[in-house]
Amino acid sequence: MKTAVVILNWNGAALLRQYLPSVTAGTDPASATVIVADNGSTDDSIALLKNEFPQVEILAFSENHGFAEGYNKAIAILADRFEYIVLLNSDVAVRPGWINPLVDYLDANPDCAAVQPKLLSDTRRSHFEYAGASGGFIDRNGYPYCRGRIFNVCEKDNGQYDKPIDVMWASGAALTVRSRVYLECGGLDKDFFAHMEEIDLCWRMRLAGWRLAVVPQSVVYHLGGGSLPAENPRKTYLNFRNNLLMLHKNLPDSSRNATLLRRRLLDTIAWAKYVATFDFKNAAAIWRAHRDFAHMRHNYDSMPRPSADLIKDRPDILVQYYLRRRKTFDSL
User: Fold this and answer.
1) What pTM does this model have?
2) Which residues lie closer than 8 Å to 104 by C-beta, 6 or more apart?
3) Within the chain, which residues score under 50 in pLDDT?
């Protein structure tokens, strides 16, 4: 057995009860081992797993390490047993046989570090899901977008993005990665806490010379948005702060300052929009994000500086979306 499907859980018994039956039924035990890494849950998650899912392996931690560090610890423990590890969110349902196209692609492409399936919405299964759709990209200003999702517009899946292609980032909702590469590239950055931590890891893997891909022949359904709803000030704060950190970490000296200056101007426009609509909580969240970025960026001063700018030739999504009214990936 060379593949493990690892679901990180913290007090998520309800989601396990809802989504784990799909994962166990759709994952051939000859193809992958399903493991729940429990982050010190205090609800009945462990009892639920033992009583209702005896075929699922349990990796129990004594405390809550958070999302990023929880996966880092789990993969460090499992890397000697499994060549490939799937980071699967606990709110994901799968189609039968979903794992095989992902593993087959990695087997056939030794220069590829990680892949994702096609992500459709579990609440609107005819449409792509926000957090990954059919493969992720980053525009020249650092804004993530997807093949099938531009900002908040999620396209209907008509098979238009069913060709496997190389991507800039693969969704952490269902990320199949070579465990060795995950560890060599440092895993998920625990200081991000939540949001964009997988994009940051994917960027580092790309800088290390690895390819990433989407394999749409594998399909999963993601609930998404369960932790923080859109326009939540906490989510606004994390998205703005982590995006700045990601740019600071992964851009070379030759373009970092210019890109961060553009982002500061664009973020000021976003701040002004919130102020103009009397949404002072989200405006304050942007201000705090920039304040905390100014302090946190020094944590990365000792890191080796990248030599390549992987986003300089990407389109400007703001121009495409708001000025040219292009709201689908294939219209860019």
Assistant:
1) 0.95
2) none
3) 226-228
